[in-house]
Write a structure and sequence with these properties.
Helix content is about 40%, strand content about 10%. It has a six-stranded mixed β-sheet. Helix 1 packs across helix 2, helix 2 crosses helix 4 and helix 4 crosses helix 5. About 35% of the residues are buried.
Length: about 280
């Protein structure tokens, strides 16, 4: 983000520019994501951040490989905890292993990323508290029993846990949607009865589903069809293989993927066409 200006600016000017970017990153999650993670955001990435800024809950659907976790679940969690160390954030994914992978990336950012420490220098590990692949505690003034950030598979949430912000990162997948179809209803029950009931104060509780649909009866598709839940504009490959992100995925790339995956699997992963029982 800053390197492109380095050849034409003095080192002093680059330092001043970086300080200006750091100042903006503290109040703008899209700027934060580009600076701390050194990403080049696409317009739809910035749109996702604005959507979350403007809605206290909702759904973001996008094609496979569009950077959902890399733009929302991981950076936004790091940004939110930097802005408010007292916040309690939960992350739910299809499996516990995936949850651990996401939390490990968040942990590495909080502990090891020098740019993160420039933006939020006050974030530190809490003393005498766990720091694991499932739960992270940062220094805070609130006396919460829940971790600062906790991640698990969607069917493994703790009863009695509390959250101020929850990200559902691809809560539906092959195993709990297609291989074991009875789990579709189990996931819905966990989503509505457990995860959405973690709120202490409904006025400040926020939640966002980020993913790709699998089946017409899964929870992602159910939310998609609920007119009362806000949705970001869907990001998907066009009918003529138009790419939403040409710098990363060319039209030719998607044409080749169609040949490999065949139509129904391609359309589900890249055009967000959920499957029915005859196709699953």
């Amino acid at each position: 983000m800053l390197q492109e200006y380095s050849p034409i600016l003095s080192s002093q000017d680059v330092d001043l520019l970086e300080q200006a970017v750091i100042k903006r990153a503290r109040i703008d999650s899209a700027i934060f994501t580009q600076y701390v993670f050194e990403y080049k955001n696409q317009p739809f990435h910035n749109m996702w951040h604005r959507f979350i800024d403007g809605c206290s809950y909702g759904e973001i659907l996008a094609y496979r490989g569009s950077g959902k976790s890399e733009q929302i679940t991981i950076p936004r969690t790091c940004w939110e905890i930097g802005k408010n160390p007292n916040i309690r954030i939960k992350i739910a994914t299809e499996t516990d292993n995936l949850a651990g992978t996401i939390l490990t990336k968040i942990s590495q950012t909080l502990l090891e990323n020098p740019r993160y420490h420039k933006v939020f220098p006050h974030i530190q590990k809490a003393k005498n508290q766990p720091w694991t692949r499932r739960a992270l505690y940062v220094q805070r003034t609130a006396h919460h029993k829940d971790p600062s950030i906790e991640a698990s598979g969607i069917l493994l949430a703790r009863t009695g846990a509390r959250s101020d912000l929850t990200f559902f990162d691809d809560p539906c997948g092959l195993r709990n949607t297609l291989l074991f179809p009875k789990n579709r209803e189990t996931v819905k029950e966990a989503f509505y009865s457990n995860w959405l009931n973690m709120r202490d104060d409904p006025r400040i509780f926020r939640w966002y589903v980020v993913g790709t649909p699998w089946h017409i009866d899964d929870v992602i598709s159910e939310i998609r069809n609920n007119p009362d839940i806000p949705k970001a504009p869907e990001v998907k490959v066009g009918p003529n293989f138009e790419s939403p992100w040409p710098e990363k995925h060319s039209t030719e790339y998607f044409i080749e993927q169609m040949k490999i995956l065949h139509r129904k699997h391609f359309n589900r992963a890249y055009r967000l066409v959920d499957l029915d029982d005859s196709e699953a």
